[in-house]
Amino acid sequence: MSETEEVKAFYKEKHIAFVVDQDSHRSFEYWLSEHLRMNGLYWGVVSLVIMNALEDALPQNEVIDYILSCWDEKTGGFGAFPKHDAHILSTTSALQVLKIYDNELQVLGEEKKEQTAQFIKGLQLSDGSFQGDRFGEVDTRFIYTAMLSLSLLDELTIEITDPAIKFVMACQNFDGAFGMLPGAESHAAQVFTCIGALAVTDNLHLLDDDTKLGNWLSERQVLPSGGLNGRPEKLPDVCYSWWVLSSLAILKKKHWIDLQKLEDFILECQDSKDGGIGDRPDNQTDIYHTCFGIAGLSLIDFEKYNFKEIDPIYCMPTEVTKKFRKWKK
Ligand SMILES: [Zn+2]
């Protein structure tokens, strides 16, 4: 092999240590991130489980106890941190982590499962959209997380999905991509949430021609770096390896981009000394980009890395998602 064909390494052990150490850093930034703590836990657990390292790296009982301590009795959902108000994003993350450990959600119990479903259903507005919490922000992200959470709880019904999906379809733009609200600018993360909501509810057929959308998604690859961006004219960023590639995977169009170049870009964003993955080469690493970099590598070639296969719709291992009943009505 010549020097120009040098194969880039994946620093698995360093990434495991990086994820596990998140909780012990206790930096100022860490405490500032209280409102993201439950999401952070999900990003860490997904990173580890995909690398086949969850069991040895994190104490399962402590993780589950932490999640249960974030239960908000007033509203019946999960907050990001103990005593925080429930929000749909932290509720989704809590359910995803619990489901990875315990497919039947037995640890939650029937009563809390029911209350969680009621909390989510109560966030739906008359136009089909969802608020993140009772304070009223609306975004297609919340429709996706609501559909996903209700699917994890086996609580999806047509009364909920029909208006929600109508709202999602109203967010599609002339370029084939989606925004956060009807008429809002197309953005790759919003494409993922809209395609994901369609996929969870078995409504992908509503995209009668997905060529335009596939083209828009594949134009997100920035050359020569090979990384993906979220909108035209923006810099590539590792997290779009997930938002864009998972959307293409759901549409069965992964091969519409150069996967080798994307793989190289993700590997270049690793910190070879301290572990973790940043948004771009040589930038500060964080748990969010570490998770979506690893998730992206799993979508590209999970066997090569000896990873678990990831489900592009749920961002959880397929060995977990294939066990529960998918929405088929
Ligand atoms: Zn990013």
TrEMBL record:
Its EC number is 2.5.1.60. Keywords: Metal-binding, Prenyltransferase, Repeat, Transferase, Zinc. Residues 10-316 form the Prenyltransferase alpha-alpha toroid domain. It is an enzyme of class 2 (transferase). It catalyses: geranylgeranyl diphosphate + L-cysteinyl-[protein] = S-geranylgeranyl-L-cysteinyl-[protein] + diphosphate. Binds 1 zinc ion per subunit. SUPFAM superfamilies: Terpenoid cyclases/Protein prenyltransferases (SSF48239). This is Geranylgeranyl transferase type-2 subunit beta. It comes from Scheffersomyces stipitis (strain ATCC 58785 / CBS 6054 / NBRC 10063 / NRRL Y-11545) (Yeast).
